[in-house]
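Q: what does this look like with iron/sulfur cluster bound?
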Amino acid sequence: MAEIQKIRTACRSCHGGCGVIAHVQDGRLLKVEPDPDSPISEGTLCSKALAIKQLVYHPKRVTSPLKKLQGRWVKVSWDEALETVVGKFKEIIEQSGPEAICIGQGTGRDYESFLYRFANLLGTPNVITAGHMCYVSRIGASLVTCGNLPVCDYDGKPALVMVWANNAPWTNPDEYKGTKLIKAIQQGAKLITVDPRRVYLAQRADLHLQLRPGTDAALALGMLHVIIQENLYDQEFVSNFVHGWELFRQRVLEWPLDKVEGITWVPRQKIAAAARMYARTKPACIQWGVPIEQTLNCTDANRLLIGLMALTGNLDMQGGNVFFVPPRVRTVSDVALHKALPKEQREKMLGARQNKLAARVALVSPKHVWDAITKGEPYKIRGMLLCGTNPVITRANSREVYKALSQVEFLATIDFFLTPTAELGQVFLPGATWIEQDYVGDFWKRHGYVVARNKCVTVGECKQDHEIFMLLGKKMGQNQWWKNMEEALDYMLEPSGLKWSQFKEMGYLKGEMEYRKYASKGFSTPTGKVELYCTTFEKWGYDPLPTYREIPESPYSTPELMEKYPYILTTGQRIPVFFHSANRQIPWLREIRPEPICEIHPETAARHGIQNGDWVWISSPRGKIKQRAKLTDILDPKVVAAEHGWWYPEMEEPGHGFDVSNVNILTDNDPAHYDKPMGATNLRVLVCNIQKCSEGE
Ligand SMILES: Nc1nc2c(c(=O)[nH]1)N[C@H]1C(S)=C(S)[C@@H](COP(=O)(O)OP(=O)(O)OC[C@H]3O[C@@H](n4cnc5c(=O)[nH]c(N)nc54)[C@H](O)[C@@H]3O)O[C@H]1N2
Ligand SMILES: Nc1nc2c(c(=O)[nH]1)N[C@H]1C(S)=C(S)[C@@H](COP(=O)(O)OP(=O)(O)OC[C@H]3O[C@@H](n4cnc5c(=O)[nH]c(N)nc54)[C@H](O)[C@@H]3O)O[C@H]1N2
Ligand code: SF4
Ligand SMILES: [Mo]
């Protein structure tokens, strides 16, 4: 037996970043353990990373390219698989133009810039991601309001953290790791939580605001009202660095606490107490989460939270919400080559006229793509390449997604498994997991680091996504790709003066942090100030001032639905072992959560004769699914909380039970109910009913 090698690398079983030491022997992964020297994870790892070996060597993992012939998947060579995709794409481009091809991914992943490079060089403006309702919407709102994304500065020692719609100890999302938040609290930071569920953090908070799901923008307006009325804001910051103060102030004054209490269900004394505590404790940061982005209030809720940060002088202050300085490496835009997309192609972007902020950050709300496939409006989408996404499970209105992807003329996917989405395709390309790749990890994040992801093992014929895009691009005749991955990584690192061969040994690079950069440089907005009155929105014809709009399905906007659907359904609270639709086939992880759980208040359950552990039907105006009931009083009796991401790899193909427990069978994607700037759907809040069902039903 060869000696055991210990290789340092970086995880990406979620948004990534944690430091890993992989034990490898004879080219085979034995186990992983946490890297105590990682500045991101400080010696911690979660269940998903610890189970990576079960994913890497899973018997159902697809490790060679596949092509569908007469309805059956057959193994083919890489060359044949890539030629099939390229041949079809060339045909479509010749007959219908490159815009008839849609390239897609899901949540933020490290290959995003390569995917965009491929799409831009192909000449298609039609890229779908999850960004219309997750994270990129936050970046978009930040760009037009204050020029960059304000991120919690935990290492800067906040005296207060307001955790707003977030559960970082379980989700470790985007820039953040839950461990840093927990450490800040252990070191004495005060804690305010805003969440319809009284979760772990809420139970330990100084103040917990249990709001009605989806009403965050109204709550923020209420808190701003208190801060303005009681002169708790930073007057110097406001007079020097805020654009549109007077108009913003007037808008906020339209939201007194009695009105806000009626909308949010949070008692006015609590709103006032939270506003005072947040405004008076310095420095304070807001740890924001994704639920605020998954309604028609997406952009405005983001803008209002930035308003709170700005008014209290916490923007770019140590321990507040800061703009981290990136390490000296190339930017995502450098690699993505957005400039390569011709203007006349950009103008053909689906939905660009409706969702102007989404168009600015180069993405399309997926509903426009489903319509282009099924109705040919405004033109037909004929070909798709989806990498690392399972839209049949993860996008609103799953039945419509399933129908569109069944109808599209050509679909190729890149994944590890044949998911319900991949099953609908004609070509499957096997991707390599993070432990099988060399990369500059965390490249897309705004936390001031990049980390070295070192290849530890090779599995079958799997290739890392970056290389697949490079190979496809070259076969398409795109000549702006590198010779190989090493040359690509050298290019990305070039401004640092490092080669990949040096960086991989170093482990990470950190940008040189500087606070209050605005004092000398202003904010990167058209006026150079924080635009609480947004001049970009004014130009685009949107309301320049943020507001709250009632959720399209609710006791207030659709009272007629309440008899049939008397409860508010919140969907998608994450659990540690799964990442959206992933990991249902990983034994250690599925053992922890074998079945989907929906939370129901005991009083509500009693009314329906439902007991803990019963299967229940959850229905909405669009369909019904079943999940197991968990009775808990952490939520309001009028609210039900269902998990998302459920399909059953063990069930029959091609659907693998995509319609059994998948909460997106219930969600709505009607464009009439969008957040206009981003095209965010109301994924997170709708109305529902519940009913006990029996085991065999
Ligand atoms: N109702 C409801 N729906 C939701 C949400 C919610 O809260 N409620 N949350 C939404 C949010 S925020 C998001 S971001 C989306 C996410 O939506 P998606 O990104 O579509 O979801 P995932 O299940 O993470 O990704 C799907 C596939 O990626 C594969 N994969 C993982 N890593 C890699 C890789 O490195 N390379 C390749 N090629 N494949 C990989 C996995 O095997 C999996 O099959 O879901 C959204 N859907
Ligand atoms: N284990 C695991 N980690 C993940 C993911 C995963 O699927 N699994 N997904 C990743 C992705 S793509 C994302 S976007 C992040 C999301 O990360 P988070 O934003 O932390 O995650 P969630 O669990 O979606 O929601 C956080 C909290 O918001 C509460 N909430 C629900 N609705 C509302 C509302 O209307 N208002 C308020 N104020 N609170 C609400 C929920 O009860 C929950 O406690 O997690 C990432 N990390
Ligand atoms: S939190 Fe994410 S990056 Fe960290 S170990 Fe877990 S899956 Fe990996
Ligand atoms: Mo997300």
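Residues 107, 130, 134-135, 290 surround molybdenum atom (ligand 4) (CB under 6 Å). The mean pLDDT is 97.
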